[in-house]
Design goal:
115 residues; 6% helix; 37% strand
């Protein structure tokens, strides 16, 4: 495990040894065939101003493909050995008309407000 310090400790009320960012490296074993893999997990509350409030990403690189999720930008892509690359996230808004009429309410953006 690794940690970064120096920002929070300058704030009033925070202890001197508080972490700003924590990274954990883990090794995983496949119980069926004994092959090894590893993962890196990072959590941080300290970040500069950017176009989103917080960066929320997930990236999985596996034996026969990969998956990338970028929650802040509503991006979800996958690539694998058989199907190739694909944008699998639903459209935020349906831009194509249905029967010549507006159908934007069928995207997950509007539906999330209804829930």
């Amino acid at each position: 495990a690794f940690r970064s310090t120096g920002l929070a400790s300058t704030r009033e009320g925070f202890p001197e040894d508080v972490e700003d960012t924590i990274t954990l490296c883990a090794q995983w074993a496949n119980l069926e065939d004994g092959s090894l893999g590893h993962a890196t997990y990072t959590a941080s509350w300290a970040a500069p101003r950017s176009e989103v409030h917080s960066q929320q990403r997930f990236h999985l690189l596996a034996r026969r493909g990969e998956l990338q999720v970028d929650q802040a930008h509503r991006g979800y892509t996958k690539a694998d050995d058989t199907g190739g690359f694909g944008q699998v996230n639903p459209l935020f808004m349906k831009y194509a008309p249905s029967d010549g009429k507006f159908a934007g309410q069928d995207g997950y953006g509007d539906r999330s407000f209804e829930a």
